Amino acid sequence: MYVVHDHALSAPAQDAQAVAQELRDRAEIIDALYRFGLGQDLKDRDLFASSFAADAELDFRPAAAKWGAEPPLMSGRDTIVTTILSMFTGRVDTTHQVTNPRVAIDGDTARLTALVEAQHLLTADRTVHALLKNPYDVDLVRDGDRWVIRRIHIDNAWYTGDPNAFFGA
To answer: Which of 74, 67, 93 shows the shortest CA–CA distance to 168?
Structure first.
């Protein structure tokens, strides 16, 4: 499920062109997750949408189960973007921090694992919050010179505050 290779790059060190391409791919792969987080934080529909393939799936069910919520599996870029931004815009302020990214590339597909810390504050009452530390398991596909998320599986390692204020029970 998670990327656990004992090395970062798979391109042979003596092949400078292959190393450069792999480093570029890795930067673009991680950037897809940065676009995912910042798009939500800024409520920027275009930036958020740019992180997903048209047929993307977002599975928040493993994380939500930790506090008793049962959200549906979200399928399709437009559904994901509309659902999340509609739920947050004008009601919730977020900040996302991405750490510990690990990448495995296989041609035009890739897998990314990372830890994402997501802070949620009610806009109207900033004393109501939820801070989530979530392991992400992400499948990506090449889209021209960039990479986009095909599937994102979000679990939860721990949380503080009241996630139900943001995501429901």
So the answer is: 67
